[in-house]
Amino acid sequence: MANNIIERVEALRDYLRRNGLCAFIFPSTDPHQGEYVPEHWQTRQWISGFDGSAGTAVVTLYDAALWTDSRYFIAAEAQLKGTPFQLMKDGLPDTPGITEWLCEKVKRLKSEKGKNLVVGIDGEVFTFDEIREMEEAFGKAGIKLRTDLDPAEELWTDRPPIPKNKVEIQPLEFAGETAQSKIERVRQVLREQNADSSLISQLDEIAWLLNLRGTDVHCNPVFVSYVLLTLNDVTLFIDSDKLDETVSDYLKGIGVKVKPYNQFKIQNSKFKTSFPSPISSLKSIKNAAEIEGFRKAMIRDGVAMVKFLHWLKPAVEASGETELSIDRKLTALRAEQPLYRGLSFDTIAAYGPHGAIVHYEATPESDVVLEPKGLLLLDSGAQYQDGTTDITRTIALGPLTDEERLDYTLVLKGHIRLALTRFPDGISGTQIDALARYAMWQHGINYGHGTGHGVGSYLCVHEGPHQIRHTWKPAPLHAGMTVTNEPGIYREGKHGVRIENTMLIVEDGETEFGKFLRLEPLTLCPIDLTPVIWDMMTQEEVDYINNYHKKVYEALAPYLNVEEKRSLPQPLQRRGE
Description:
This protein has 3 domains: 2-155, Creatinase/prolidase N-terminal domain (Creatine Amidinohydrolase, Chain A, domain 1, 3-Layer(aba) Sandwich); 168-279, Creatine Amidinohydrolase, Chain A, domain 1; 285-576, Creatine Amidinohydrolase. Helices cover 34% and strands 20% of the residues. It starts with a helix and ends in an 11-residue tail after the last helix. The longest helix is centred in the middle third of the chain and has 30 residues, at 288-317. The protein is an alpha+beta fold.
């Protein structure tokens, strides 16, 4: 693989010379700014070989580097080995930004006769604001930015085409609000902003707005398109062969015009200003039908998880199960559930040291046999037509070290502390992030990823604008939002621990100081208690575990056989006795 990357980089450098460029930037995004992108736009992976969901590759005439965040430090270092790319650990104090690094690297070209200081990007896959920021930064260094090139069109000889899968209608019983109503709500925001139109490019926003779903993007039920919404009209830019007669009639019925996807570029030139999409905030607050859908989806997902956990340890003790084989088993159990539509992301089944790789994904080369000892970190989720699930459980497969038990207990304490928190309506998730980290901070331990993200309603498993994380995210928290609760601890070469539930933000009374909120767990699945150091747990934490497991039992027991019911945790006494 490394040899292929070396050849691609050399071919790219020849392309740069022929086009008067000194560097080219490859982001992880597509024209729709999605986290998961169709293969057609996976140019960063094509040029670098790094397959994580986040990262930016930069190639100059003499250097190459790849920026990614802490979730992928370990994986990226392994994948970039033997390639021209230097790993840049984004977010660390000593790591320069991309424009800063590029400005420094291209200085050497000023002394070379005939060299133009021009950096290239595919302007279609960057936002207006990103392009403006680059133009300003490069301009100060005497560097020009060219936005009209895509070297992958020439150099990626077997580049996958833009997907053209069929679009489906999301029934009103699951959507909970008509497309016409949603369109009018967006128009009201436009009026408040003194705007007369909005270009909608993010695929999950389009799917939500029009109550449509698709299969163009891996694990995300969306379809490649644009929407131009004005105060009077709505135009969907999409390849017409993606629409059958039923969907075409539906779009006509709600007053949506249809134009070819490739005609959008003509319209794009009309947009010179931008402001945050109103759809992101509107979509984040779930209506009653969506909340009910989540609850039902979580029951089915919980049943699949309990069946899996009941099967797991005996299967491991019998030997032969691997990370990939248990992934297949869990997927098969989920697929048996009604309204199952696929995974919401690729399963992370990480045993032992692999658990320290935050977004590890087993491959035939990395796959290992599970043994009846140590920890298994299992982060998984599914798409059901009435809801999206995301759950992490760390499971003791047998005897543990004291360090494994300590880390597990600290993560559980953090998860519970956040779950028990009462907080004012409208605060940012950043203001409560420290609660999940407090116990581990007292032991000098921390983690680099965020603590929580929104979850879509049969949409993307990662949804904003709100988050719970240590870096500043000003988006407010309100009742009706979903958000995950997933603190973790990772020790490279040893193990990883993460415990995650998807939560619903609900109202929790009003005082003279305003409205207060709390987190209600939507996820229904037992938490492994065998690793817990009970002397470290407070009675309040034990009570929370008991109450949560009672809720799990009451919700799932009707769908389980006798042996599966017996596998569910029994109530604990004070401090785990």
